[in-house]
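Mods, move this if it's the wrong board.
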Amino acid sequence: MGNFISVIKSGIELEVTDDKAINAGLKYAFSTRNGGVSVGSLSSLNLGVNRPDTRENLIENYKIFCNAIDIDYNSVVLPKQIHSDIILNVTKSDRGKRLTLVSDLPDCDGLITTDKEVALGIFYADCTPVLLYDESVHCLCLVHCGWKGTVKGLAHRAVGKMINDYLCKKENIHAIIGPCIGVCHFEVGTDVMIEFKNTGLNKCIKK
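Not the wrong board. Structure tokens:
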């Protein structure tokens, strides 16, 4: 897992890492809200498909973002996230779903593929995006880990799915924990602390 670097490509601000293995094998980036065509409260690089934006703006924003990282926006597959531990295997036949095509994919909080013609996307704000990549088999998995997903062991489940479904090896899997809210801005209540405590993850909780 590398260090984050802010870069400007095609006029938009992106976050990448200095992880050499991931950079060598993937075209990827974490987006910011800068550099798109949306206006008002969605200004300006809105990529949220459920936001009250025009379809024209949304598609143009994806074109801008995808052009910046040199991928075809028609290849993007997007999930409908529900704070679950569900991870879907996707292939070339799923390209465009939930962006340029109506999606028949079940609700989930993670996507996984080994198809080089598929681009995976995931939505995050406060929650934590996690990117997992095994360069030896070109297996990519993206998961949306909010506190509920973390309690459910979503990232751990993702690694297990990479190993079981695609024969990845743990020692070959690189991980990026993407930009997310920090302890300085996020206070949880007793109910959330109890949820973590019941999973045995209470060692991660500051008292």
